[in-house]
Amino acid sequence: MDTVIRWLMNDYFLTTVLVWILFGLWFSGSNATERARRQRAVLSAIVAMFLGNLIVKALNLAYYRYRPFAFNEVRLLFYYPSDSSFPSNATCVGFSLATAIWFYSRRAGAVAFVLAFLLGLSRIAGGVHFPSDVLGGAAIGSLSAYLVCRRAGWPDRLWTSLIGLLRRYLLA
Amino acid sequence: LLYFVYTELAVAYVLFAYATALGILQIVGTHEGLEGLTVAEARRARGSGYGLGAVLIVGATAAFFLSQWQRILTPGPAGSELALLYALGAALGVITSLAVATARLRRRRVHGEEQGETVDLGRFAALLYTPGRTDKVLPAVALLPGPGAYERHALHLLASELAQAQVVTLLLDLSAEKYVYPDVLALVPAASTWLSKRSDVDQSRMAIIGYDLGGNLAIRAASSDRQVKAVAALAPVFQEPPVGLDLMSELAYPEAWAYSRDTLRAELRSELNAADYLTRVHPRPLLLLVGARDRLAPWTHPVRSSVRDSERSDEATDSLTVRRVDDAGHLDLIDSAQTRDWVVRWIIGKL
């Protein structure tokens, strides 16, 4: 079980699988309209991830929370992270990508949510986060995606121009 | 300026990214039928595409995690560094897939030996396919390729089969430079005049078959040339070509690049204006043969409305035949012997 948790919680596996979804979405779609919608999802997800990271960094500067293993008896399955426990950056990344994808593609979004959930859960089970850290990360990630995909008008306009440009080079 | 705790880990991650990106491209490219993006044939060998993609993803994942397991559980590159490494690996994966697909598609399009007897039509050249020595007076067909080289091989096969079916067949052989409006309008009259002078040709049984923009030219020429008794337009182009990845449904990246920037082609399509001339072929039989998977010149609304106009006329109803070929695209529309046979039978039936 520990191996499974280590497999899920490390920095390389689930985050990379989420990137696979983005990469696959970019080239998928049965026609140009559908493909453009999915490409908007990819671009929005990347911006949402950056926004979520910025918020997490800002919170880290304002508030430091010790990791669960600092003062509790926890069986740590990972290396000792030194940054603030709250909010979970990895979960924030997972949920920002999943929520942004969900706004454009329900099926791919659902898969991404499962992966993001597993990422957060494994971080708790592995002893590097409190549940509230993961909930905070998930909330910040989802909020970032919501702001980028639903509240801000400029990304969609920018994506239309960018996708049009990339199409001329047969990249979109 | 990247800071890696283990260089070997970073290199392994790039390789992991490279192989998995390549694998994802095979699966998605095969699913979407993007021939120019896949290592294996996306339409005819779907199993190979999915299989190769799955092997690459699973194999690379297993190799990376098994070889780097201890390092993975220690502090490594930051998220932004990992993103850069993945982007590098993925870019290399895309380049590899495009390069292999280009080589594969080029190899597939190596043309066989062209038979036919060379004929000089003055400003134009042509290849003549005849059924051999016969005392009979036979029907004749002029074949018009488009300005590209892609469909010529298929038309050579069609010409051979028409000749075998006792049809004198003249395959116009044009370089792309000569495919210029309005010069190209002289092509069909030159061909029909040359054919009608032959003693073995029945002047009252002459038809034209055009492929790609050759189909547009066939429609346009037949609208004013009354010697033409039947017309078949194979994959005619009624709309602007698509942009972006759709072009790679049948073309390799360099071909798609050239195709999307071919202004002469776009001008010719516009000047020939074949959609407006569809009804003027009436009451002579007109066949529009299109591939159900054609994304280079998809069969869409503006053409349908024009066809509907012609269908409103009672007389026109019998003259127009629209046939969609399942699982065929633009460039491989008549690659199937069955489809070519159907076209041969249709044209002979109308003459």
Task: List the topology elements.
The complex is a heterodimer of chains A (172) and B (351).
Chain A: H1 2-9, H2 13-27, H3 32-62, H4 68-71, H5 89-104, H6 106-125, H7 131-151, H8 154-168
Chain B: H1 7-32, H2 46-72, H3 79-108, E1 117-120, E2 125-129, E3 138-144, H4 152-164, E4 168-173, H5 187-196, E5 201-211, H6 213-222, E6 228-234, H7 253-260, H8 263-272, H9 274-277, E7 286-291, H10 301-312, H11 314-319, E8 320-325, H12 337-350
Parallel strand pairs in B: 3-4, 3-5, 5-6, 6-7, 7-8
Antiparallel strand pairs in B: 1-2, 2-4
* Individual helix count of chain A: 8
On the 0 to 100 scale, the average pLDDT of chain B is 88
Roughly how much helix do the residues of chain A carry, as a percent range? over 70%
Low-confidence stretches of chain B: 309-316
Shape of chain A: elongated
Task: Please tell me what the overall shape of chain B is.
Answer: elongated
SSE pattern of chain A, N- to C-terminal: HHHHHHHH
Separation, N- and C-terminal Cα atoms of chain B: 74 Å
Report strand order across the widest sheet of chain B.
1-2-4-3-5-6-7-8
One letter per element, helices H and strands E, the order of chain B comes to HHHEEEHEHEHEHHHEHHEH
Overall mean pLDDT of chain A: 93
Quaternary state of this entry equals heterodimer
Helix content of chain B: 40-55%
User: Which protein chains are joined by the largest interface, and how many residues does each one contribute?
Assistant: A-B, 31 and 40 residues
The main pleated sheet of chain B reads as: 8 strands, mixed
- Number of beta-strand segments of chain A: 0
Low-confidence stretches of chain A: none
